[in-house]
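Example with several molecule types.
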Amino acid sequence: MARITAGIGCSHIPVLGFAHDHARTAEPIFKPAFDGFDWTRRWMREEAKPDVVILVYNDHASAFDMKIIPTFAIGCGERYKPADEGFGPRAVPDVEGHPDLAWHIAQSLILDEFDMTIINEMDVDHGLTVPLTMMYGDVDRWPCKVIPLAVNVVTYPPPSGNRCWALGEAVARAVASFPEDLNVQVWGTGGMSHQLQGPRAGLINAPWDNRFLDGLIGESDDLRRIPHVEYLRETGSEGIEMVMWLIMRGALGRRTGVLHRHYHVPVSNTALGHIVLEPLDTQAVPLYPLAASSMSIPDACAAGPDCAEPPDQSASIARVPDALDCQTASAFSRAQAMSPARSGPAGMSSSRWPR
Amino acid sequence: MPRITDVTAYLAQFDDIPGTRVFTAARARSGYHLNQFAMSLMKPANRERFKADERAYLDEWPMTEAQKQGVLDRDYNRLLDLGGNVYFLAKVFSTDGLSFVQAVSTMTGMSVEDYQAMMLAGGRSPEGARSIRENT
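Resulting structure tokens for the full complex:
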């Protein structure tokens, strides 16, 4: 049986790929960013050794233009070439896919009501290849197969953080039902705080980013309730990429532990974040059963804003997916509703989601 | 406040963020040909034709005159207003040989040197930059 053994969060800043490809990683401007991956590269090589990485990323007008904008797309192809992003393709190995597992996940997700776009051919840009470089360094061949999972975080609205988390849970169910014995990791990439446009460009919010890293660890699922506008206000227009980390976090189940963590400002325009997590509760979040839905969801929502944590297992099944509507409105939004005097516009304060 | 599923209310939140053009569907529609023009510069042959005669190349695209002028002026804030997205506009400034730092700094009213110094000092603080309403 395939199993998810770890999750990795990592920014995919293009200049880090440039620094690596031009042998400039030891320069003072780049060295602190790369040093924080020394632990991970050794761990990947000597201990973790994943067979397959499900790599959640976004395309930056490389494989996709404005003609077609898939919200969630999964790569089911045999291999992917590094994209030419205007300076020629990066001189890194081609990325090998794992079509058997990818198609299994794609089919499972659709049956699980995540209506994925399926990609058989595309080039992959820095969003996918820079994390591979950070985790493996200079190699002749990537040591793992890769299943690209591309998310639209460019054209609004992107998927909600809650939906991303739930997709991660569904990915975990799909992996667990694959018969072959495979060591699988899920990576969430992009972020952390950065804004590449407009007069507010250059925004960095280290305290918020670090609270986000904190929130990935342990049992809390508060991060899934952060609304888009809070990412935009607090972490810049491109900080919205962090919703992709929540697919990784959702795939790790109810409880995680942290193995390694790294944060550095700045890399070019961006705050660099990196975390390695392990799942500590191997029981997959259960599939949402169709038969139970018509009965349990109205009950759950009728319970009002306190329906966030159903007491027993049968009720908790109703969390996925529709009961989340009321759950989403629980802790975070209720805090605003109850304190109109001191609450500004929605999502203004960084302190409203518990750490 | 329930989760926002009303698109109008959802989008209205974004107008309150200072110095930021969120790439909404309205911008994506108005900027469609601008962004597709920029995307065309991914091909080396198109880059050469564009560099040889920018105006003639732009005239091949059903863009508005304001969009064409914005490209000729490399006025990136104006192009964001006219529906450009930075990942697509990046094809234009890459054609000019500019990095993201160099191009992005032109949108901030700062010199490249001042912008880089700000980034090295930890970036722009979110204090006072979260909300137009709260700052007025």
